[in-house]
Amino acid sequence: MKSLEGQTAIVTGAGRGIGKEIARELAVCGANVVINYMTSAEAAHALVNELSEYGGKHLAIKADVSRDTDGTQLVRSAYEAYGKIDILVNNAGITRDKTLKNMNFEQWEEVIRVNLNSVYTCTHAVLPLMLENKSGRIVNISSFVAMAGNIGQANYAATKAGIIGFTKSVALEVARHGITVNAVCPGFTETDMLWEVPDKVRERILERIPMGRFGTSQEIAKCVRFIVSEAPYMTAQAISINGGVYI
Q1: What does pTM read for this prediction?
Q2: Contact, 138 vs 75, CB < 8 A?
Q3: Is 62 helix (H, G, I), strand (E, B) or coil?
Q4: Which residues pair with 239 in a beta bridge?
Q5: DSSP labels for 85-148?
Q6: Is 178 helix (H, G, I), strand (E, B) or coil?
Q7: What beta strand segments (E) does 114-247 contain?
Q8: Cα–Cα dist 148/60, whole Å
Q9: Residue 47 per-residue DSSP state
């Protein structure tokens, strides 16, 4: 099904994990995908080659989207290549887990800068183009931790909660212009980030999940695809995909 044929999507932090699967899902559905990365150059360019099998025109662009100049340049480069931007998925994110008493300001500030500032820089850059076209889909990747909290993740939880507030506010500002803005809030998902967690901790996490398993990046990607292709009346929402974890 080529429901996104001819559309252009930017996915930040798309070199691996959830971002990679989102890029793949959008490409399978016909979109031209701009794969943003910062450190995963080899993986990003390999993904471009893979996505070419589905047709379309795909690019890998290195940019530190936590910086306003880089976020603006990413959007400008994508626009120069395709002439329009239909979809923006703000996925870039990091963790620097420490309990608050052991967390230094650098660990706090770095997570705020990458996870939250990047959502501002890319959205701020792409909005004029979407407003001109009176159309657009923006999806921000938050987390169930935004609502539930998590020990050792005060910095991460603050950014993901901020993303939900940002999503709802911007959605109200642009709704009358045909632009939707939504957030997706994954639960614990099988990514490199999760596998860095000690085995005993993962076992305790599983006990909290009614479905008895972790989510997959593909499941998150399919939700994003649904929002951008089949949900024109959905906006200002935070969609939880967490296996039934009670928050």
Answers
A1: 0.95
A2: no
A3: strand
A4: 184
A5: --EEEE---------GGG--HHHHHHHIIIIIIHHHHHHHHHHHHHHHHT-EEEEEE--THHHH
A6: coil
A7: 136-141, 179-186, 238-241
A8: 34
A9: H
**The 8-11 sheet, strands edge to edge:** 59-62, 32-37, 8-11, 87-90, 136-141, 179-186, 238-241
Per-residue pLDDT 10s for the chain (247 aa) are 569 999 999 999 999 999 999 999 999 999 999 999 999 999 999 999 999 999 999 999 999 999 999 999 999 999 999 999 999 999 999 999 999 999 999 999 999 999 999 999 999 999 999 999 999 999 999 999 999 998 999 999 999 999 999 999 999 999 999 999 999 999 988 876 666 667 777 788 888 889 989 899 999 999 999 999 999 999 999 999 999 987 6
Which residues is 34 bridged to in the sheet?
10, 59
Cβ contacts of 49 within 8 Å, gap of 6 or more = none
Q: In which residue are the tokens 């701020």 written?
A: 124
> What 8-state DSSP symbol labels residue 175?
G
For residue 37, give the DSSP letter.
E
Residue 61 belongs to what H/E stretch?
strand 59-62
Residue 7 CB burial class (10 angstroms; 0-12, 13-18, ≥19): buried
Q: Which residues have a catalytic role annotated?
A: 156
User: Considering only CA atoms, which of 194, 196, 166 is closest in space to residue 182?
Assistant: 166
